[in-house]
From TrEMBL:
The keyword Ion transport applies. Pfam families: TrkA_C, TrkA_N. Residues 141-223, 365-446 form the RCK C-terminal domain. This is Trk system potassium uptake protein TrkA.
Length: 446
């Protein structure tokens, strides 16, 4: 597959690195040679000094043969124009990054398709959705819903209160149990578990279950004493924070602490009186106490500085906040944040890249998510008639090493998968992959 990425910034470089591991034919364009130098020396891909809307440069990059053209520069109009040009020059699919929330509304998608833009991404909205999912369940690090929750994947950090520690999975997660363990992060190792593996204290464990059994999962992992989130303090009033506050359920109340006076004024114009905007530093312990940190169940740090966010979350935890969320855009700090037990880690470029990644696949795939914590992908595939995965029961499929099927949705009903399960065309199948080329998995479904 030939892929052209315009914009060697956060999302573009991360996406190029993600795709280069699959040995795709990638060309990364940018008008600034300094942005290209580092990535070209570290990864197997071509780079070209070229503005997003330079017709001569696009032709030289071979855009007429591109299976996917991705414009993710910081310039919204340039991204849209570049996609329209790439489409006219022959690119099969195009994706543009935008900064206007109205552009991603359903009623506007057809307008952009007519312009030659097949998909629109607004990273701040995607990140905000992840934040809200995390806040709705204070005891969960990560939640991923399939078909509006017919199936649910929960990433949970195990503590001493967990009831199912130190027992083989074949004893606690058999065919008749209402959950499957699809992955375990033990210390720095990701495990796609078998029946003899055990769960250990401080493991990060990914459970697949159905919505009605979420309370049961909460009980067996010993998280019933975690209070539900009602009050949230956001540190940093940028676009992601603003979108997240707008998406908060009605029963949650938010305060935003922002250092920039002019941004505080903008936020006051955006929100009604239910959201208090405070001009100050979210690391100021005196200010946090004054704003009721002791009666706050969640603290979300979304400044542009990863170190600041990590330290602020540590401070909030020491002051009794159970649920903390940190934006960590620098991947060098992700491991540090996890080792410090920060809580939920948000990375906009990883979320956006996952959304784009699914456009590469020929199979019918609804959703792909890159899970930074376990360096793995989880995807929702729909098998075609007579695809390989529908020909035999799961136990006879000889799935590639590092691949497990967590569950499926059939006729709107979620169900877990056992070795005897026969997958059918039209099912929505949730596949978990660690160190596996997704293109290999895709072949099972087409």
């Amino acid at each position: 597959m030939k892929i052209i990425i315009s914009g060697a910034y956060a999302i573009g470089t991360f996406l190029a690195k993600l795709l280069s591991r699959n040995k795709e034919d990638i060309i990364l364009l940018d008008e600034n040679p300094e942005n290209l130098d580092k990535i070209s020396s570290e990864f197997d891909l071509l780079t070209m000094e070229c503005p997003a809307t330079d017709i001569k440069g696009l032709k030289a990059a071979g855009v007429e043969h591109a299976d996917l053209f991705i414009a993710v520069t910081p310039n919204e109009p340039a991204n849209i124009a570049a996609c329209a040009m790439a489409h006219q020059l022959g690119a099969k699919k195009t994706v543009a990054r935008v900064d206007s929330p109205a552009y991603v509304e359903e009623q506007n998608k057809e307008l952009f398709r007519k312009m030659g833009v097949d998909d629109i991404i607004y990273p701040e909205i995607l990140a905000a959705k992840d934040i809200i999912n995390g806040l709705k369940m204070s005891w969960v690090r990560q939640r991923w819903d399939v078909h509006d929750g017919a199936l649910v994947m929960l990433g949970i950090k195990l503590r001493e209160t967990c009831e199912i520690l130190d027992r083989p999975l074949k004893e606690i997660s058999g065919p008749n149990d209402p959950y499957h363990v699809v992955a375990i992060k033990h210390n720095d190792e990701t495990i796609i578990p078998g029946g003899n593996d055990t769960l250990q204290v401080y493991d990060l464990v990914y459970f697949m279950t159905t919505k009605q059994y979420i309370p049961y999962i909460r009980k067996i992992v010993g998280k019933e004493h975690y209070v539900d989130v009602q009050n949230v303090i956001f540190m940093g009033g940028g676009k992601t924070a603003a979108r997240a506050v707008k998406m908060l359920p009605e029963y949650m109340h938010a305060k935003i602490i922002e250092q920039r006076t002019e941004r505080c004024e903008e936020l006051n114009n955006i929100f009604n009186e239910d959201t208090l905007v405070i001009n100050g530093d979210g690391r100021d312990i005196g200010l946090l106490k004054e704003e009721g940190i002791r009666n706050t169940q969640a603290f979300v740090a979304l400044t542009s500085n990863a170190e600041t966010n990590i330290l602020a979350c540590l401070t909030a935890k020491r002051m009794g906040v159970r649920k903390t969320v940190a934006s960590v855009e620098n991947f060098d700090y992700v491991g540090t944040a996890e080792s410090l037990d920060i809580g939920t880690i948000i990375n906009k470029k990883a979320v956006a890249a996952s959304h784009i990644y699914q456009m590469m696949l020929d199979a019918n795939v609804e959703n792909i998510r890159f899970l930074m914590s376990v360096n793995a992908d989880v995807a929702e595939f729909t098998p075609s008639p007579d695809s390989k995965i529908t020909r035999k029961p799961v136990k006879d499929l000889n799935l590639p090493k590092g691949v497990t099927i967590g569950g499926l949705v059939r006729d709107g009903e979620g169900m877990l998968v056992s070795g005897n399960t026969q997958i059918e065309a039209g099912d929505s199948v949730v596949v978990f992959c660690h160190n596996v080329d997704m293109k290999k998995v895709e072949k099972l479904f087409i």
